[in-house]
Amino acid sequence: MVEIIPILKMKFKNQVFFDDFCREQKNNLMKTILNLGIVMCISVFFACGENKQQASDAENSVSERSIQSTGTWHGTYRGVLPCANCEGIRYELKLNEDLSYEMARKYLGKEDKIFRNEGTFTWDESGNKITLLVDNEEKELYQFEAKEDQLVKLSVTGEPIDEKLQSVNSLVKNQQNESIRNRYWKLTHVDQIPIIPSENKEDEAHLILRSDSQKAFGYSGCNQFSGKFHNDESSRIRFSTMIATKKACDHVKYESTLFELFETVDSYRVEQDTLFLMNKDNEQLIKFVAVYLMD
Fold first, then answer.
1. Structure pTM?
2. Each residue of 219-263: pLDDT tens digit?
């Protein structure tokens, strides 16, 4: 650069002309830098716009995959959810297309009262969570995460109660006929002998099979009982020895037979809402029917 300047000065003997030449070159250089800056800004602008559009398209794609957008979420959901001071809470929740709902709950092993509520519900922005407001003195709030053909109960703050136990906190939509778990099975026959229903529904003999803990529990019509069941094949099922309370009831003469038959059960069959427990010879031992809180 030092050598070039004297050469330029020799070409431009007039200092004024030389100064003009320098200013012209400087201006040209500034224009070039400015043009390059504008081009870069325009490129960044369009790149950002494209990224925003891609993000928007991704959000729309997620929204399209939401449970709300499927249009198949309406229907009746049923299940038996955990209870801190009872056998379990039977839930039935009907969601209607007009965003209204009907809900029935019953605390098993306690009073026979069925708690019924109705009202409206809302979807959150993701289209995967619903909120029900129960219009009572406590203004209870119920929130559920919507999944395909099931609702998972959430805490009052909308958080999962326990991610490891989603199955036990779930209500299943229009339970399939072959499903035997988390349903309320009313006892109707023991060793093919019909059971005479009690006038007091609190004394109704029943069985519930929990999906989370492989626990079987119920009521014989006299005593509470519980045990384990094993069901790892399509129609095979085994029960452990049932542990029961020791209340004496003269009117429940089938109780000891019921507990003995549980230990010989080898398989089951479901026909519509009827459950048959059978032995190795495929002979019927115990019969139940599914009972619902809402028709």
1. 0.69
2. 999 999 999 999 876 789 999 999 999 999 888 999 999 999 999
Please report the beta strands in the chain, taking only residues with DSSP state E, as ranges in sequence order. 75-81, 88-95, 100-108, 114-123, 129-133, 141-147, 150-153, 170-173, 185-190, 193-194, 206-209, 215-219, 224-230, 238-239, 243-244, 267-271, 274-278, 284-290
Range of the domain at 219: 185-290
Other CB atoms closer than 10 Å to residue 38's CB: what's the count? 10
- For the chain, report the end-to-end CA distance as a whole number of angstroms: 96
Taking residue 110's Cβ as centre, other Cβ atoms within 10 Å add up to: 13
- CA-to-CA distance for 161 and 18, rounded, in angstroms? 82
Distance CA 261, CA 270 (A): 18
Six-digit token string for 44: 């960044």
Q: What is the pLDDT of residue 232?
A: 75
Element (H, E) at 8: helix 4-11
Same domain assignment for residues 123 and 160: yes
* Contact yes or no for 251/220 (Cβ under 8 A): no
Judge if 275 and 193 occupy the same domain.
Answer: yes
For residue 167, which phi and psi values (nearest 5 degrees)?
-65, -35
Residues in the chain with pLDDT < 70? 1-64, 136-139, 163-167, 175-178, 198-202, 233, 295
- The CATH number given to whatever domain includes residue 212 is 2.40.128.270
Q: What SS3 state is found at 5?
A: helix
DSSP letter string, 224-256: EEEEEEE--SSSB-EE-PPEE-----TT-TTHH
Same domain, 158 and 207: no
Whether 53 is covered by a domain: the verdict is no
SS3 146: strand
- What DSSP state is assigned to residue 62? H
- Kindly state whether residue 41 falls inside one of the protein's structural domains: yes
